[in-house]
Write a structure and sequence with these properties.
The protein is mostly helical and about 80 residues long. It is built from three helices and no strands. It starts with 20 loop residues before the first helix and ends in a 17-residue tail after the last helix.
Length: about 80
């Protein structure tokens, strides 16, 4: 059994983001209306936006490294 750590949710990583006030307000209202947390709604939206990348990540074998992006900073 793992030890208790305040603010820790197993299997999750903390992420801080800045959003426009209107986005925050709509998110807060949606959370109140549905009974979901703002984090649950945010994660679902991110998963939808990143679906293709998440699918590719799931197909890679354990131990594979993420590919190096082409045309990165400093490339002419």
């Amino acid at each position: 059994m793992s030890e208790y750590r305040p603010g820790y949710i197993e299997g999750k990583r903390k992420l801080g983001v800045y959003v426009a006030e209107e986005v925050h307000k709509v998110l807060r209202v949606r959370a109140a209306e549905t009974g979901e947390s703002m984090g649950e709604i945010t994660e679902r939206a991110l998963r939808k936006e990143l679906a293709q990348e998440l699918a590719q990540h799931g197909r890679r074998k354990l131990g594979d490294r993420c590919p190096v992006p082409q045309g990165g900073v400093g490339d002419a």
